[in-house]
């Protein structure tokens, strides 16, 4: 007993000598005795994601520190996954149903979490999130490589997702896969600082589609025929697309094309029998192989099923083009803004059944490098909601926009419907709205205004025929530029623009003339015949020129309200033979000098309300079809 007591006293004396009376020995002994094994307080939860997205799991645990973690997938340790949370790489369809657990351990023991399941992965709704491939979207980090890696992972049915942010790209982005969606989440911006294109979908990144060899038509086919025959096979079958193309009468002959483009359209093949191709709609021009060198070409490697939505393309002022579809059909584009380019912010060429809606274009357009919006070689185009504004002003130091910005251009296209299109050309020294060889297309609620130069409001050129303009508003184009300039609010150029109809349009404040069917084309042929103006109001802007000036045959003007100022309300030139002018109202006291001046042979009309203003129109019954 005395020996044991002596040993205890000796230990206490040594402890006091070394540590004083702080109690550290007692504390150390207590801590060692109380070491606690881990216990999980918050279990990891199952996650539901789409293919291409990442999934994150986390755990909370208590126990004596330090705690260590090891995450497992389907019972196998994941290399490097040693923290309290774990984020998977971009998922694939093989990850569907995977089980994730975590082992939490310390010196006192370990505990394994409940399993969390990765669910909802479906290859048919694959989402390729560009951030999962390293894109930052912070506006300063170059995301080009990351976005291209995400694009490379696209397969049919996938969505290329851009979460909110500004994605800096220093090179063109190209997509060449059918049946994919590009989704900008309503708030993503791709800002491209290169010098070519922001994004091109189709044609391996070229803004012009690839076509097969041009094969001549064997015989002439008429407008609205449903089939054509070529001298040899095109190599097409049902569902393929074909470009029809031909020249027209101009100073270079009957087989040459206008500087703005050739005549033609894109059609879809319904069936093939030998060298005869039947199309799904109709042919919208008369194609003549002998006179106009009419040919057919197969569209190569078309894309279909493309959807682009809710995203902004910004060309930084350095790119020529913004967003381009090239050889893309059966597709939709909605909620897209394209801006800050030298030429075309929107370019669609070689497509069939493409629908555009809620499109905004700013800071774009040029004479040399494309209209701000440029549609070419299309069939069945649909547009519902398109705004063009703040176009590029003239800038003689830049080759693209040296001659000012052109706003909207539609070339060699047919059978479209465009609704709620607005072009505000304020400050832009270029042509606001122009069609070239556009046929059988309806424009509903088109507004064209504030063009600066004497380049008209709406321009119809080179075989643009059978088009209908409903409820158009054309104001203040070329205002204040004087008279005798050739400018007009609406100008049909004289080179075979026929059978067009303008219904219930409001036209006012435009320089020179408000509505002009011109005979002053390059060949002075005055071949713009059988056009109609029905309803609407036309208000002159000066006392020197007529409000409506007609130099084409067979024009039908009916139900129009015409106000001055103006030298004449309607002036029918000597080239304006066989005009029919019925039931129009000429406003007294508005500054009109004369109501109607008829100078062509066969001009007739009835029911016009002259309000004491003069008219030399021969009274007689007339109406369409006119001779």
Can you describe this structure?
The structure is a single chain. The chain has 627 residues and is mainly beta. The chain has four domains: 39-123, Immunoglobulins (Immunoglobulin-like, Sandwich), CATH 2.60.40; 126-210 and 307-325, no CATH class; 215-298; 326-619. Helices cover 7% and strands 40% of the residues. The chain is built from four helices and 53 strands. The strands form eight sheets. A 13-stranded parallel beta sheet has the order 15-17-26-29-31-33-35-38-41-43-45-48-51. Strand 8 and strand 9 (109-112) form a beta hairpin. The longest helix has 18 residues, at 2-19. The radius of gyration is 36 Å and the shape is elongated. It starts with a helix and ends in an 8-residue tail after the last strand.
Radius of gyration: 36 Å
Number of helices: 4
Shape: elongated
What is the terminal-to-terminal distance? 140 Å
Question: Mean of residue pLDDT?
Answer: 91
Residue share in helices?
A: under 10%
In short, what is this structure?
With 627 residues, this protein is mainly beta. The protein folds into four domains: 39-123, Sandwich (Immunoglobulin-like); 126-210 and 307-325, no CATH class; 215-298; 326-619. The protein contains four helices and 53 strands.
